[in-house]
């Protein structure tokens, strides 16, 4: 697959998500936390975006807003022609249901369901899903179908979470520190799965990490600090996951 | 948490969400069961108590119809049969019947105390027009054979008498041997209490039916009658008929007609049914209310623990309605399981309950029957309760923005609570301080948990306090009111000189005579037939005693009314009444109400004996006497008095007390058994669920402590200490609620014939607290076992 360059994209690639001037405040009694300040951002079809930044810099807040889990205090957000910043709660639910997959730092699997059933939970309500087994095979867990979360290692749990997120063939996959709770080699494994999904299915992806080295696997790298995007860079060539220093 | 049973559930073709439901219900089976049991007790009380009430009413109506139970009754001295058409002609009378009825002494083998028989005549041909009897064994009497008798079933059972046996009675002073040909029951004598007694004494008192051809001549009642009853035409004014009947019977010594509601056996049954109705409404309402409250509490907390899972479901696009429905299903599963258990248990219990009634009242064909309407009602109420309980929590959980719910719940912000700031904390060890802070951190939750457990205490109190009331009553009746050893009543009034005759009997140390004068008391257009009890003013064996056990002095003039009677007549102290005497010269006199006392025995009027003499204009008559007798002479005196033809009855409070207490002990045993069960279900429902939820909320924290080297016992103390605090707070709270509910029950259970005294013994409070604590300890023990087997690694590995 050819690596798309920035100029190509600006001319021809479609922006799946377009955000402009997004801000988010949290009222904490008298204190007002400014978690996100006037963020402009576009996420393009098939792109792999890496969000870097120190803890508390607003990465999760941004990702949650992009995924329709939360709404911005001001600014606008478009998914294609649909304006998410003014959408109702049930429209946001429908948006998530049809188009978004999530992977969380702490996996958030349902502990009473097996790996296969955790994936079914999502395929049950999707329009054109993969078979759960197929999704689990994609993450290399075909032999762990009937294991409960407590019977899986952290890396395996995270891969189940990825299978769960991709099984409905979402247009956008949002991953909040998917390797944050994992050791280096397991983290690398998880990242290569995500990378592979992005390449093979063309799923648009945003990955949060506070590990700067991971930035090298993405097409675009944004660095956040105090709620603002302080740096944007682009990789002409995406580094192989195996070559990432941890 | 590791789940087993994936195989079974997994193989079914069900959506993952349903699988989650099934598996989590299984995983939470202890909690689900305890919630289900709470619902079950609510439904069970409805099905048992209300269902029994409905069954009783139905059996009563059927029995009354089949036996043509009369509407209006009157006794009289003697009237010729020729008066009957005149009674029949009273407007509104559909049917009328007459008969002869007398009390006589029975001479029974192996019985020191005298036995009495109520002899009732049966028509020569065919069956009675009204007040028929139901032969349960043997046959009807043959008018041609004069000594044939049918006896009442309870008496037959108590004495082991059967058709074919014989029985000796002293009829009109002459001993006669009677042949028992049949055993029967009748609604008039469902509950038959011998004269002067409070409770049935089936081995000393029975009803005997004989042909009027045999009974009439024996009492000089040939072609005459001394009892009449009437069936009213539909829509008739009962009071008008009663008043006309009184007029007709007046010249023949009518004692005053009364309506069915004043017929003693009906009154007892109706009183019991009224109680049953109130209890069948109050108890289920309390239980269902508590069940609904607990569902609220427990399901709410259960759902709160699933906050993370709700967020995941929402993140993946499950709609609020879908998430809400999923969690409501937990409530539905618990309610349906509870309904099933409750219905089955309720039907079984209802049958047992009805079985108990069958021993007291013979209502033929009395059977527990569950009406579908009742079941639907109970189900609907519990469902509504469960749904409303779960809905609140579900709505709260669903309303949480998913991004927020995803974030682990912020670490609780602890600060020294009020108690600690007051310095209590310094007295506690570190673990004590942790427990205290946990309770103080969520004071509302702790309060509601305590409130839940408090209901367990309260329910025990309202169950147990009724026995306190009865005990109080017994104490009052047998130690403060009836202080004689033997009471004697005469067939007819006798000369006051009997006082000296009785005093000369062997062993008698004190004699106090009394006169019972049947009377109709009138005030305006209110009237009531009763008896004026004339007592010796300086008497010590019988006195007027109020509910509080205070002796009320007997004034030299005027009448003292019991409160219920005063209310019926709409009079107060100082008012004047018209007293129409119903025997002797039957004149009417004005009499002043000298006082109103709150006593337990319904509708009595008391008067000084001398004043009563002046009122009636008869100075030399008494109806009976109370005797003090030396202990070793009592049984000899029984025998002697039994031989005296003029004596109608001899009663001994001691033997009454004995049968009363035997009866009571059994009732207490059964009722307390159920109450303990119900209260435990509630206590366990709150404590067990509270501890289980705390365990899942704080599992990681506790597991970390274990990893750091805390002992199991120390960790258990932290977890269960909170429940202990909840229980301790619950006890005084429960006492308070129980006290209030008991008061409400006393108020609503009050009938003319029955009042539960509002007395709660200190012991009741302690027993209620103790049982609740025991249930709490038992549930803590179960949770402790779960805590001991906590899988440290899996708790730390997964995030709930
Ligand atoms: N629900 C909330 N209430 C109050 N403050 C919040 C909330 N969520 C996030 N914040 C604050 O917003 C800022 C950004 O948070 P977040 O986006 O989670 O950072 P990151 O993911 O980069 O670590 C932080 O200062 C955090 O404390
Ligand atoms: Mg974050």
CATH superfamily of the domain at 4-107 and 168-235 in chain A: P-loop containing nucleotide triphosphate hydrolases
Our count of helices of chain A gives: 7
How far the N terminus sits from the C terminus of chain B, by CA atoms, comes to 9 Å
User: Radius of gyration of chain A in whole Å, from Cα?
Assistant: 17 Å
Question: Which sheet architecture does the biggest sheet of chain A show?
Answer: 6 strands, mixed
Strand order in space, largest sheet of chain A? 6-7-8-3-9-10
Q: What small molecules does the structure contain?
A: adenosine-5'-diphosphate, magnesium ion
Total count of domains of chain B: 4
In the predicted model, the low-confidence regions of chain B spanning at least 5 consecutive residues are 1-12
| SSE run of chain A | HEEEHEEHEHHHEHEEE
- Supply the helix-strand structural class of chain B: alpha+beta
Secondary structure tally: strands of chain A: 10
The percent of residues in helical segments of chain A reads 25-40%
The portion of residues forming beta strands of chain A comes to 25-35%
* Bulk shape of chain A: globular
End-to-end Cα distance of chain A, whole Å, is: 26 Å
Label the structural class of chain A: alpha/beta
Largest interface: A-B, 43 and 37 residues
- Global Rg of chain B: 34 Å
């Amino acid at each position: 697959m050819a690596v798309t360059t920035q100029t190509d994209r600006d001319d021809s690639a479609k922006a799946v998500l377009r955000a402009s001037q997004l801000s988010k405040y949290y009222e904490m009694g008298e204190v007002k936390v400014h978690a996100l300040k006037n963020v402009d951002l576009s996420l393009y079809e098939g792109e792999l975006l890496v969000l870097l930044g120190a803890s508390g810099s607003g990465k999760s807040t941004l990702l949650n807003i992009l995924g329709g889990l939360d709404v911005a205090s001001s600014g606008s957000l478009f998914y294609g022609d649909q304006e998410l910043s003014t959408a109702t709660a049930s429209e946001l639910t429908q948006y998530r249901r049809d188009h978004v997959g999530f992977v969380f730092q702490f996996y958030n699997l349902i502990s009473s369901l097996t790996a296969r059933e955790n994936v079914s939970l999502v395929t049950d309500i999707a329009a054109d899903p993969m078979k759960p087994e197929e999704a689990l095979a994609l993450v290399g867990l075909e032999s762990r179908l009937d294991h409960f979360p407590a019977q899986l290692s952290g890396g395996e749990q995270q891969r189940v979470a990825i299978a769960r997120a991709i099984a409905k063939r979402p247009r956008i996959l949002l991953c909040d520190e998917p390797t944050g709770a994992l050791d280096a080699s397991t983290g690398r494994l998880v990242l290569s799965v995500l990378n592979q999904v992005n390449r093979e299915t063309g799923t648009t992806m945003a990955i949060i990490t506070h590990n700067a080295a991971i930035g090298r696997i993405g097409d675009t790298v944004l660095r956040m600090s105090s709620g603002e995007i302080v740096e944007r860079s682009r990789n002409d060539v995406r580094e192989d996951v195996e070559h990432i220093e941890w | 948490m590791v789940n087993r049973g994936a195989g079974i559930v997994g193989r079914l073709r069900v959506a993952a969400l349903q699988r989650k439901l099934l598996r989590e219900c299984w995983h939470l089976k202890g909690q689900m069961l305890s919630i289900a049991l709470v619902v079950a007790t609510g439904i069970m009380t409805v099905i048992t108590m209300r269902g029994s009430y409905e069954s009783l009413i139905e059996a009563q109506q059927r029995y009354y119809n089949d036996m043509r139970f009369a509407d209006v009754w009157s006794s009289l001295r003697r009237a010729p049969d020729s008066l009957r058409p005149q009674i029949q002609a009273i407007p509104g009378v559909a049917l009328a019947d007459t008969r002869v009825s007398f009390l006589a002494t029975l001479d029974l083998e192996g019985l020191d105390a005298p036995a009495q028989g109520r002899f009732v005549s049966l028509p020569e041909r065919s069956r009675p027009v009204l007040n028929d009897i139901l032969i349960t064994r043997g046959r009807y009497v043959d008018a041609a054979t004069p000594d044939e008798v049918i006896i009442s079933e309870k008496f037959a059972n108590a004495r082991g008498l059967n058709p074919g046996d014989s029985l000796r009675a002293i009829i009109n002073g002459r001993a006669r041997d009677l042949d028992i040909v049949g055993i029967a029951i009748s609604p008039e004598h469902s509950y038959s209490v011998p004269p002067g007694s409070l409770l049935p004494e089936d081995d000393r008192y029975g009803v005997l039916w004989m042909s009027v051809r045999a009974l009439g001549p024996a009492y000089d009642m040939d072609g005459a009658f001394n009892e009449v009853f009437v069936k009213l035409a539909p829509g008739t004014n009962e009071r008008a008929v009663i008043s006309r009947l009184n007029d007709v019977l007046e010249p023949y010594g009518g004692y005053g007609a009364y309506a069915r509601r004043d017929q003693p056996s009906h009154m007892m049954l109706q009183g019991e049914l009224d109680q049953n109705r109130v209890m069948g409404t109050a108890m289920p309402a309390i239980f269902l209310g508590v069940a609904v409250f607990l569902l609220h509490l427990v399901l709410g907390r259960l759902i709160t623990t699933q906050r993370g899972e709700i967020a995941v479901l929402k993140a993946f696009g499950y709609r609020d309605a879908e998430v809400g429905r999923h969690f409501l299903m937990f409530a539905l599963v618990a309610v349906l399981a509870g309904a099933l258990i409750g219905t089955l248990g309720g039907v079984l219990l209802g049958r047992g309950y009805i079985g108990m009634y069958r021993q007291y009242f013979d209502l033929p064909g009395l059977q527990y029957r569950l009406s579908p309407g009742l079941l639907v009602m109970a189900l609907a109420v519990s469902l509504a309760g469960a749904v409303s309980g779960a809905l609140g929590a579900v709505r709260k959980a669903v309303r949480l923005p998913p991004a927020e719910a995803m974030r682990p719940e912020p670490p609780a912000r602890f600060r020294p609570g009020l108690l600690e700031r007051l310095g209590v904390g310094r007295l506690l060890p570190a673990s004590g301080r942790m427990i205290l802070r946990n309770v103080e951190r969520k004071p509302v939750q702790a309060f509601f948990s305590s409130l839940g457990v408090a209901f367990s205490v309260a329910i025990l109190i309202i169950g147990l306090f009724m026995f306190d009331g009865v005990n109080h009553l017994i104490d009052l009746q047998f130690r403060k009111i009836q202080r004689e050893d033997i009471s004697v009543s005469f067939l007819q009034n006798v000369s006051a000189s009997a006082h000296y005759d009785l005093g000369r009997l062997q062993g008698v140390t004190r004699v106090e005579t009394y006169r019972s004068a049947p009377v109709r008391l009138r005030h305006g257009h209110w009237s009531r037939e009763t008896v004026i009890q004339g007592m010796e003013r300086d008497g010590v064996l019988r006195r007027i005693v109020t509910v509080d056990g205070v002796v009320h002095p007997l004034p030299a003039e005027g009448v003292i009314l019991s409160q219920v009677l005063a209310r019926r007549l709409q009079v107060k102290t100082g008012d004047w009444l018209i007293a129409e005497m119903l025997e002797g010269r039957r004149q009417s006199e004005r009499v002043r109400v000298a006082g109103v006392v709150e006593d337990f025995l319904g509708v009595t009027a008391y008067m000084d004996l001398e004043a009563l003499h002046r009122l009636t204009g008869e100075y030399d008559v008494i109806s009976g006497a109370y005797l003090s007798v030396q202990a070793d002479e009592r049984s000899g005196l029984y025998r002697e008095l039994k031989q005296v033809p003029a004596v109608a009855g001899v009663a001994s409070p001691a033997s009454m007390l004995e049968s009363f207490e035997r009866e009571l002990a059994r009732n207490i045993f059964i009722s307390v058994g159920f109450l303990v069960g119900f209260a435990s279900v509630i206590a366990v429902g709150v404590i067990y669920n509270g501890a289980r939820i705390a365990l899942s909320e704080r599992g990681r924290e506790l597991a970390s402590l274990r990893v750091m080297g805390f002992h199991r016992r120390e960790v258990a103390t932290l977890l269960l200490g909170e429940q202990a605090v909840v229980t301790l707070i619950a006890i005084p709270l429960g006492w308070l609620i129980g006290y209030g509910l008991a008061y409400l029950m006393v108020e609503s259970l009050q009938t003319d014939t029955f009042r539960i005294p509002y007395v709660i013994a200190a012991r009741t409070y302690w027993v209620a607290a103790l049982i609740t604590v025991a249930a709490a300890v038992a549930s803590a023990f179960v949770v402790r076992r779960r805590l001991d087997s906590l899988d440290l690694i899996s708790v730390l590995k997964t995030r709930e």
